[in-house]
Amino acid sequence: MGNLFGFLSILVTNYFGFSVVIIAIFFFTFPLLALSSQQNPTPSNRFLFDFNPKLTKKEKKRATQNDSIFTPIVISFLLITELLVLNSIISKWQADLQYNKGRQYSYAGYIGQSLPLLEKATQLSPYEPVFKSILAESYAYAALSLQQETAQATPSAHLDQLVSQRDSYANKALTTIDQALTLNPWHLNFLKSKLNPNKLKLLIW
Q: What is the value of pTM for the model shown?
């Protein structure tokens, strides 16, 4: 009776538009559960459950031994696969967390605090063009800030250091936005982001 009501609930969810993959799996699983829950199948449907009715005891023992050999291998494979998928999910979650924090710092003008967070996000998720786009803009703002400092500084060793840092951030900005456009060359926001480093390059050189 429970299987019947479970099956009917799947029909109700499908009617109201909640038909997703897992619901489709449940839809075909409930009839299987209903069939397998029969304690004493009749001879007419016994073949549904006993796929090797003519096996001898020796053959059944051999089949059991084979199962005992492959079961640990299958379980190990599934565990490794599950761990890899879980690690990928955690990495993406951490990357998204670092990106959001870095973006907030960048929009608030705290470029020094935003850069490590955005760099960490791109390391965790290197194929996400949005992360690279915001990182490129932050590099450009950092270079522009250093450019303003160099314009007011007097010639010294400290000035040479500022110029070196400025050029480094400017080159990183151009390289990073090019990487974002390589991953997604048609996104208008990425093309817009590329405009800022290009303007910066004209200001510096």
A: 0.61
